[in-house]
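Bumping my old thread because nobody answered last time. Still need a sequence for this structure:
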């Protein structure tokens, strides 16, 4: 069958606006309907299995109770960035803070990225 045999043209969508915002898959909606009345029972079953020592159930329950640990933000007073030499001083400040040890040293990887971004902005 060639393009001449079909009412559709290659590369032209019949839905120019795309999928509407908030539209959901039929399979997702069907699964939600099936589980709607069973949520409490499934939760109790998972807790019971966890209490009996089922490692997977324990992980599931704990992942819902304890959110993934995220790093706290750090604050470092940087010199004003007006020229390329200022970015070198700012990077030095970040390295000094990381080199001083403590919690900041463990989390220092990639901390000077904003300074590098500012350096690129200054260079144009």
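Sorry it took so long. Here it is:
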């Amino acid at each position: 069958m060639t393009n001449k045999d079909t009412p559709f043209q290659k590369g032209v969508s019949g839905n120019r606006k795309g999928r509407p915002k908030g539209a959901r898959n039929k399979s997702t909606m069907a699964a939600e309907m099936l589980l709607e009345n069973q949520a409490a029972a499934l939760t109790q079953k998972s807790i019971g299995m966890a209490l009996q020592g089922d490692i997977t159930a324990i992980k599931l329950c704990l992942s819902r109770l304890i959110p993934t640990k995220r790093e706290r933000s750090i604050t470092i007073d940087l010199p004003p960035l007006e020229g390329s030499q200022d970015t070198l001083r700012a990077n030095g400040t970040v390295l000094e803070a990381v080199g001083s040890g403590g919690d900041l040293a463990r989390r220092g990887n990639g901390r000077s990225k904003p300074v590098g971004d500012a350096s690129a902005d200054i260079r144009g």
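The two ends are 54 Å apart (CA to CA). Let me know if any region looks off to you.
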